[in-house]
Design goal:
Blueprint: H1 2-39, H2 45-68, H3 81-105, H4 109-120, H5 122-134, E1 146-149, E2 156-157, H6 169-172, E3 175-177, H7 187-198, E4 200-201, E5 205-207, H8 214-241, H9 245-251
Antiparallel strand pairs: 1-3, 1-5, 2-4
Helix pairs in contact: 2-3, 2-7, 2-8, 3-4, 5-8, 7-8, 8-9
Amino acid sequence: MQEKLSTEIIKTPYQDYWKITFIQKLSYWLFLNILLLLSQYGTNFSLILGIGLISVGYFGLLFWVVDRWRRRLPTPIIPNLYDTICMILSGVSLITIGTLEIFSSAEYPLITLLCLILLFMPIPLFLISLIYDKGRYHDLIDTSYFLLDGSMRQLQLLIVRLPVVPQFPFFRDRYTPLVWEKRWNWLNYYDFSLNNFMKLGFNDIRLRDQHIPGLISVLVWYQWTLGLLYIILLLWTLSRTIPGLNLLIYLK
């Protein structure tokens, strides 16, 4: 009896250590393979650019659908035919260009696309299905969920900017909802997707903080998190492909 207990006491720490090392090796293997797939270990900028185009186009379409397709009854809140055609054509064009870029630059393009599908499709589509299954019954139902800062329009880096408007009243006064009736309003959804993923944009567009469904906030924050990882991968790739840029990044 004592020998059995002693052997169990000796084996248990070893088994736990083996499990921990196995999990660490598995996570390291997955992380390394994702790096190789999405950037060829930091040596393929064209591949990174293709991934960015697919993400901006895909999430721009999702944000447009969530914001513009509200309900059909009793009072329809849906986009007009012009917006629908422009969004579908532009979104499909961006995704197609990004896919062609991946096929021309990736070593294993099909596996790379499968990895992007697993990152981009299950969680966002699940959130959108929940949004339309539950319905939307809240105040400001006929106003856009996205707010535009009209004080300036310029190309700007938005790495430290969060996607939701702060609750400070005077800061909130600078932002106005997107005007659905404008002919070029559909471009704002791509601008927001560009801001949220690549941290770069022409207008400061954010999600409003009043009467906003929580699932829409989760969708926005999910893309923001993916964008943060994308920026890290992009900077790492640039530091390995452009001579001297790694010194500039690391010194700052």
